[in-house]
Amino acid sequence: MPSMKHLLHILEGRLEALPVRMAVQLPAGQQLGARNADVTLRFRDRMALVALATGEIGRVGAAIVEGKVALEGSMRQLMAAAAGLLTHNPAQEQGNPWWGRVLVRARSMAAHTLQHDARHVQFHYDLSDAFYALWLDPRRVYSCAYFSDPAMTLAQAQEAKLDLICRKLCLQPGDCFLDIGAGWGGLLLWAAEHYGVDATGITLSRNQHAHVQRLIEARGLEGRVRMHLCDYRQFQAERPFDKVASVGMFEHVGRANMPSYFATVRALLRPGGLLLNHGITAGGVDNAQLGAGMGDFIEEYIFPGGELLHASAVLHDMARAGLEMVDTENLRPHYARTLWAWSDALEAALAPAREALMQAGPERADKALRAYRLYLAGSALGFERGWMALHQMLAIHPDGAVGSGTLAGAQSVYPFTRDYMYSKACDTCSTNSNPGLRPT
Question: pTM for this one?
Fold first, then answer.
């Protein structure tokens, strides 16, 4: 390892080249970088200083969470500095030997048992409903919004996203609709109240389950909407569903379980039914997680057990399960804007946010707040730079055999063009009109 003197010399050069004025205070008190800084990091730990000099910004983030580095400045300015301090693209795998891939798969299988996944989900989503309410929209939609009009507020863009999903799924009155990982019920209730479906949701979060149960009762939807507290692998349906959505959930499944996940979804979907799988995908083709220590930061403080796959790998597993992809859309820029909206809202409510987390005690509250400040802003940066993406993948369960014998194929009937996705009128869905694709 280079000497500390050499690392500090490298760091001085990088600080000078940053797009924002940044200062670094060393443990002994001396200061590097700009005099009138926009962002200042005060180090109490020498190893965190080494991490900064070598571009391991995730490890610097962990040191901030643990109180080993004090931060002064805005999240937006800090992220601008962080991007300039990287030494390589964190979405590109730095060497990927075959045994490394085998190890990743083995770890994925071990991490995603029923018990582990329940603990992982509850670690994140049951943190504090009051905390999430401070920076999410009023419906508490905790996934990428859809800014169909640049002038939209976050709340409007989230409603636009909910409606886009419903239109892509061709939801019709009377459809039996399943929402896997239904969160705080935003999509579940939107589909029931605006599209007249019979809606079922599942979640592993106790807090989310209780919240949605209260909303169902308050809105008088007990006959048409229900919420179950269970794992998708344990969910038992009386009959297959017409339409299925999975929004912001399959990131928790794990690459080892992805084939069985899509096989399970296919079994829950009637022939001819549609699946909308909405989730974060990896920006790199081969990387198991973000580099520069960022993946380790997210695993430790935010999403234990979370795993990202490239869109090509997801589509491969989807096809192997017998689901035909009929449309895929990348909403990456929309998620960058969504995350900045969440980050700005949290930054404007730091005192009440800390209070909302105090049920865990002051030390844990401070650590959680620092972690989420870095996570939201860092994720916004990641989507801006293409280190991660957000894909909506629409797939169909093929709806019948064509021909006979061993060479029989499967027929999928769905709207002939994509126009229906962007119009409130979904006539093509109700008639299922596609003369060129009708079974014969």
Answer: 0.89
